[in-house]
Design goal:
The complex is a heterodimer. Chain A is of the alpha/beta class. Chain A contains 8 helices and 7 strands, in the order E-H-H-H-E-H-E-H-E-H-E-E-E-H-H. Chain A has a 7-stranded mixed sheet with strand order 4-3-2-1-5-6-7. In chain B, strands 4-3-2-5-6 form a 5-stranded parallel sheet. The chains are: A alpha/beta, B alpha/beta. The interface between A and B is large, with 47 and 60 residues. The structure holds iron/sulfur cluster. The site of iron/sulfur cluster has 12 residues of chain B, from helix 11.
Chain lengths: ~170, ~400
């Protein structure tokens, strides 16, 4: 999937992605419109399906509010690429099928507005001039991504589908 | 032999587990609140499965209670109807979810608890494995009673010596966050131990485990001991004598700590009080799941007693729960706050997340006893948020500016 880069910094919190005053709803369109409303006010006006968010460290830190990744997904963002993610945000994104890729250097070498193509399953990030290898979800997270979402995984096979051979001590 | 996390899971699952293992485990209790609950209910409904166990599902109205908008009332309506439909009786509107979980003994030593709120790590202060999840994960627990865990590596915080007078668990946690960085314990369990932690009350241990989320921890734990069991009323148990492998150990010398202030815009931007005292304040907030417990209110009351808050500084106190409120009432603290000119609001999250009871405007400065100072957290993204202990908050409310309680003049 191809699109343009929206470049953000380090420590983008869930309060920046979806401020507490805007997440008093489960309405998908209200969530879509509130995405990054104060941190990047032009975001929802200009984002196109297939665009990509690229950020630095600790993306999605803070609250467990799933409204944050949902609002990004509702804007049809193809993937969030960050140097690192907060744990709950990452898990929420995987659960709802929003592709997340860890990549230490993407936010340093890509620029706002760059054309980019992302392969969410392999983690390969390509621009007209360079290719980066990001780290896509693995382990249980990969199984959820392959199923499409956690809900789909539970519907088809449930937890039994995930039982792995136990660690031998 | 392992970390507290490894021992708790091994005990529960009946076989040895180690950091790095992925396990699927049944939880004791799953909690959601008025903001995360409706999405969890949507996730549960989309599964089209029966409910796991009504007695082990807990909802709290706290983030926006009582409702201040029609939209908030709608969230409450969705949850109320769900609870009626599934005969869920654990629906509370008596304070912050994390304090209610402790007050009502829903989080217990040795347990496994998940909550649709990032500060669910708080109950680790009672020696239980507790972690925050999102709404979809919690919705799946509503149906299956289970979730998956990657057993985390552990960061051990070993606190030597005793905290000096006027220095509290909040200061210790902020100091550690400054050392570790805001993502320093990412994906890890944090174990708090050593002399200073052993000497702490459960209230203070809950504060440490609450703030562990804010440097990335997946869970935080204090090993259960006599203090824990005296508080919880559970039958004591002992974890096997351990020789755990830690990812990292941070040794802190408690004796050298000064009151700490986390300065806008991030929690790891921590300074000694002396570096920031004198900065004028428009608002002071005493409360939250970090520092809204009885011992916190006792400290604030001891400072505010017989004094009056500065006229430029609106001062808001929100007891963490109804239990805390009632105890504070009997102890006379509520009257002290009211006479000092503070606004005492109902138990709940209060202004912590910028939705009610003291939303801050552009350019304003607020000092809060809560856990987050991200831009926009308490209202305008152009407001500045400082985080500190209840003692610093109370002294600062009196001075109208960030102030070290040690510099207070005696009441005349
Ligand atoms: S008091 Fe603040 S941090 Fe704690 S649960 Fe409420 S909103 Fe979250």
């Amino acid at each position: 999937m191809s699109g343009r880069v929206f470049l953000l910094g380090d420590g983008v919190s869930t309060d920046a992605i979806m401020p507490g005053r805007y997440n008093v709803t489960t309405d998908p369109d209200a969530l879509r419109r509130a995405c990054l409303i104060e941190a990047r006010p032009d975001f929802t006006e200009t984002v196109q399906p297939g665009d990509v968010i690229v950020a630095g460290r600790n993306f999605g830190c803070g609250s467990s509010r799933e409204h944050a990744p949902l609002s990004i997904k509702r804007n049809q963002v193809a993937a969030v690429i960050a140097a690192s993610f907060n744990r709950i945000f990452y898990r929420n994104a995987v659960n709802i099928g929003l592709p997340v890729i860890r990549c230490a250097e993407a936010h340093r070498v890509l620029h706002d507005g760059d054309d980019v193509t992302v392969d969410a399953l392999t983690g390969v990030i390509t621009t007209p001039t360079l290719t980066l290898q990001g780290e896509p979800p693995s382990g249980v997270a990969l199984r959820i991504i392959e199923a499409g979402s956690l809900i789909e995984l539970i519907r088809h096979g449930g937890w039994a589908a995930l039982e792995e051979p136990r660690h031998v001590s | 032999m392992g970390t507290i996390t490894e021992e708790l899971f091994s005990r529960r699952l009946g076989h040895a587990v180690h950091a790095g293992d992925t396990v699927i485990a049944e939880v004791d209790v799953a909690m959601a609140h008025d903001v995360t609950g409706p999405l969890a209910i949507e996730a549960f409904r989309s599964l089209d499965m029966p409910l796991w166990d009504a007695s082990r599902i807990v909802f709290n109205f706290d983030h926006v209670m009582p409702a201040n908008t029609v939209a908030a009332a709608e969230l409450h309506r969705i949850i109320r109807e769900f609870c009626v439909e599934h005969t869920i009786t654990n629906l509370f509107a008596e304070g912050i979810c994390h304090q209610v979980m402790v007050d009502r003994r829903l989080a217990r030593p040795g347990g496994i608890v998940v909550g649709a709120d990032s500060h669910s790590t708080t109950y680790g202060g009672l020696g239980c494995f507790a972690t925050g999840l999102g709404s979809t994960d919690i919705g799946v627990v509503f149906a299956t009673g289970k979730t998956w865990f990657r057993i985390p590596e552990t960061v051990r915080i070993e606190v030597r010596g005793a905290l000096p007078p006027g220095v509290y668990a909040k200061d210790l946690a902020l100091h550690v966050i400054a050392q570790m960085g805001a993502d320093g314990a990412d994906y890890c369990a944090v174990e708090w131990g050593g002399e200073a932690v052993a000497a702490m009350s459960v209230d203070e241990r809950l504060t440490l485990c609450n703030l562990s989320t804010d440097f990335g921890a997946k869970t935080a734990l204090v090993e259960p001991d006599a203090v824990t069991f005296a508080h919880s009323g559970d039958d004591p148990f002992e974890l096997p004598p351990v020789r755990p492998r830690y990812l990292r150990t941070l040794v802190v010398d408690a004796e050298r700590l000064r009151p700490q202030v986390a300065v806008h815009p991030s929690i790891d931007n921590v300074h000694d009080i002396d570096d920031v005292s004198g900065i004028p304040l428009d608002e002071v907030f005493i409360g939250s799941c970090t520092n809204g417990r009885l011992s916190d209110l006792a400290i604030a009351a001891s400072i505010l007693s017989g004094r009056t808050v500065h006229p430029r500084t609106r001062t808001i106190v929100a007891p963490a729960s109804r239990g805390v409120y009632l105890d504070a009432l009997s102890a006379g603290y509520i009257e002290i706050f009211a006479r000092a000119g503070a606004l005492v609001v109902n138990p709940g999250c209060g202004p912590c997340l910028g939705r009610q009871h003291g939303v801050v405007g552009p350019g304003e400065r607020v000092l809060s006893t809560s856990n987050r100072n991200y831009p926009g957290r308490m209202g305008s993204p152009d407001a500045q948020i400082f985080l500190a202990s209840p003692a610093v908050a109370a002294a600062s409310a009196l001075a109208g500016a960030i102030s070290d309680p040690a510099t207070l003049e005696p009441v005349s």
